[in-house]
Amino acid sequence: MQRGRRGSAQVPEGSADLAADHRVTWHSQGGKQLYTGIDLDRPITGSPLNDTDDFQKLGHGATYLDWDLPRVVVTALMAAPREKVLDIGGFDPVFGHVGWGMEDTHLGAALIAAGCFVVPVRQCVGFHLDPPDADAQWQTKLASWPSTLAYYRRLLNAPAPHGRATAFREAAEQLLGDSEVISR
């Protein structure tokens, strides 16, 4: 990675390595898996995108190793119809209070329940920049994983979110009203 002006990160040179995306190449050390709870008897490397025909074999409860259809939705790089996101209420804000993760998986599940499709576009690439203390942050994040996953599972057993556009707009307006703009 190159450094830009004032030492800020810039987009890396060259082509992106699509295999770095965990939906393209997924590595497990084996043992009990965090998401589905399945027990893999050995380390494994899988290819969720290829082995599920671009996720077409997922859905309706089908899994591939530690993956199901909502889990492949990673909101760092996705698109969805605005009216669908508004109707389901966007991200469930409770996730940020419970612990780390699963908010994008729940958003994916809610959008799928609202009739949206998961269509991977292999030409789209997003870059993720880890902080200097990434390993320590991962340990902190994973410590809250059981409570976050339990909350997610409770939501899956509830009716799918619907009709939340007004509440979503009101919450967004409140956040914007409470925000402070800082410019350099």
From TrEMBL:
Family matches, as InterPro entries: Nucleotide-diphossugar_trans
Stretches the record annotates as Disordered: 1-20
Protein name: Uncharacterized protein
